[in-house]
Amino acid sequence: MAVVAYKQLSLRRTAERMREEEDPWLCVREFLDDFYAADGAGRVRMILERPERVGDPRFDAYLGALAEHMAIHYGLSVPAWAVEPDRFLDRWWFPTTFKSLHAIALVQSPASFRRRGIFVDDTELKRC
Fold it and tell me: Is residue 98 a part of any domain in this protein?
């Protein structure tokens, strides 16, 4: 039996999984787990390649925000695809269903998300 090495999830693969109708939040969490465990070169590979559109402009913008945020916080170059015009929303989006958290998200959302019209709280990118 051949042993298959685990391949870290890139944002490109994360978008493919979203298009395959997997839970987008599970896809994001699994990407984050891999990203945090990767070394510098691995992190570059994980965000560099442009993901195809997922079919939901909110998640297209979310992936751009995620790439930009991770690049900035890990001293990497922001990939050009992450700042393409269609990686930004025309209307604000609060991914939470709890309206009571919107005010917190307005304050705590990282800049790369805010500038795209996406508002999340400071736990969004944390993993155990």
Answer: no
Share of the chain above pLDDT 90, in %: 84
Nearest Cα to 114, choosing from 124, 123, 105? 105
Closest CA to 74 of 116, 45, 113: 45
Distance CA 101, CA 128 (A): 22
The structural domain count of the chain equals 1
* Coil/strand/helix, residue 69: helix
pLDDT in tens, 9-24: 999 999 999 999 889 9
- Phi first, then psi, for residue 118 (nearest 5°) are -110, 130
